[in-house]
Amino acid sequence: ETGVTQTPRHLVMGMTNKKSLKCEQHLGHNAMYWYKQSAKKPLELMFVYNFKEQTENNSVPSRFSPECPNSSHLFLHLHTLQPEDSALYLCASSPTGDLSGNTIYFGEGSWLTVV
Amino acid sequence: QKEVEQNSGPLSVPEGAIASLNCTYSDRGSQSFFWYRQYSGKSPELIMSIYSNGDKEDGRFTAQLNKASQYVSLLIRDSQPSDSATYLCAVRGGNNRKLIWGLGTSLAVNP
What we know:
The complex is a heterodimer.
Chain A: E1 4-7, E2 10-13, E3 18-25, E4 31-37, E5 44-50, E6 53-57, E7 64-70, E8 73-79, E9 87-94, E10 105-106, E11 110-114
Parallel strand pairs in A: 2-11
Antiparallel strand pairs in A: 1-3, 3-8, 4-5, 4-9, 5-6, 7-8, 9-10, 9-11
Chain B: E1 4-6, E2 11-14, E3 19-25, E4 32-38, E5 45-50, E6 54-58, E7 61-66, E8 71-76, E9 85-92, E10 99-101, E11 105-110
Parallel strand pairs in B: 2-11
Antiparallel strand pairs in B: 1-3, 3-8, 4-5, 4-9, 6-7, 7-8, 9-10, 9-11
């Protein structure tokens, strides 16, 4: 069991649906991340939050909307997704933000299928 | 040129052998280097981190860094079937400090 938990682990949604992915970290870290992992592509950083403030948005389409109410919780709100958005979405955390050189720790991931 | 490059494999080794996984990177100013293991259907988990030239050993794992040649490698001694996974190399860049990931090398350890 990791210190970063994600729910749901599997999600199937239609292109017109609205759903959310949830992440909670129990490591006392101050930075949280959303990554996307697709077949035959390197891990893609989507968003970074450091002390609840968004510090990075890697040109992610607006149909993905992150929310970080506190340093322990991170959400990814999904709406009007496309089939090509089907992927493994990984939440991660680190003691402080990505730019500081800290090691990041991943949750188990949420498998998303858009139909 | 890819920023972090790994041979996709699969790399197949017999049980008990040494598995050697390699990673090259393009940013000469890179400072931090990480190896993650990812089992099929699971998330990446940190195996080793290395910051200085030379070798760093942790149990059956040894990370080797050569900044002049811009490569980092991971050696797995006495390979076990449970080591069968994809190994991801991640490099933290020099100027912008972004973590750049390779595609991973698939390792199969045959009993």
